Amino acid sequence: MKKSLLTALLLSTSSMATFAQDNTAICYNCPPEWANWGTQIQAIAKDIGVKVPEDNKNSGQALAQLVAEKANPVADFTYLGITFGMQADKSDVLTSYKPKGWDKIPNDLKDPNGKWTAIHSGTVGFMVNVDALNGAPVPKSWDDLLKPAYKGMVGYLDPSSAFAGYAVATAVNLAKGGSLHNFKPAMNYFKQLNTNSPIVPKQTAYPRVLSGEIPILLDYDFNAYRAKYKDKANVVFVIPKEGTIKVPYVIGLVKNAPHAENAKKVIDYVLSDKGQQIWADSWLRPVNEKAISTKAKAQFLPDHEYARAHTVNYQEMADAQKVFSQQYIHEVK
């Protein structure tokens, strides 16, 4: 009798574990404090019943782990800066999936074979906690950040690892007259910035800006607007006068994913009208720009400010990334 009861309990526990697994989709690089993934994850669980555990990797760390686990994948889908999405495709860790509404997505925002699809984009600039500036003026240009008044105040994500950091490096490089084949201006800029004691974390530093630990973070507009309008911090977003870039973030289905069907549901959801609305209400530029409400649009900087933000050839940006990272590590880091 005891043996039968034990067997029944074990079977029940096994069934519960199977059920728990069945409603899960493991994401690499879905940080709750980044791009408001926290809200998106909650909506996914509520609306389609799929649990997506939070994950605080950056794009580089996510890709490295996907490659390391290639023979026995753990992740089901991944969220990456577009150049890392292209690298993931080359590393053969993604598989084809064309989500619902595929035909409506612009060709330059999706892989033609469905290996990755852009879900939203952001514009690089300065996220500034005005209260933490100790009386210094809000910086308006890349050159301003080199001034002694901002010593120890400027932060940026490690550009040899995090896509946001690489996007910042690309933005300042182009603003300083460089190209996707010549990153010397960026190297010179970061060397100069080093004399101002910058803070260079690997992961998203959003809470450190709110606390004032990092008064100026080279980051995306959506994080600055979130700080201002959701967290009610005295934060402003600045598009540097010399210019900047806007870049997409993409999502992709992992090759041989353990929970592929759940991952497909998640990908469909974040590209659905509801999912795109969540991105738009979090001040991201969704792939479906019709999802941007009048209220959200009014909270962005004016269009004439965004005229200084440019697109680039993202494939060339991806091709240059490895060489850039090696150069940055050797010359700056």
From TrEMBL:
Keywords: Signal
Superkingdom of the source species: Bacteria
SUPFAM superfamilies: Periplasmic binding protein-like II
One CC-aspect GO term: outer membrane-bounded periplasmic space
Pfam families associated with the record: SBP_bac_6 (PF13343)
BP GO terms, sorted: thiamine transport
Signal peptide: 1-20
Keyword Signal recorded: yes
GO MF term set: thiamine binding; thiamine pyrophosphate binding
PANTHER family for this protein: ABC TRANSPORTER SUBSTRATE-BINDING PROTEIN, THIAMINE-BINDING PERIPLASMIC PROTEIN-RELATED
Protein name in the entry: ABC transporter substrate-binding protein
Protein source organism: Acinetobacter nectaris CIP 110549
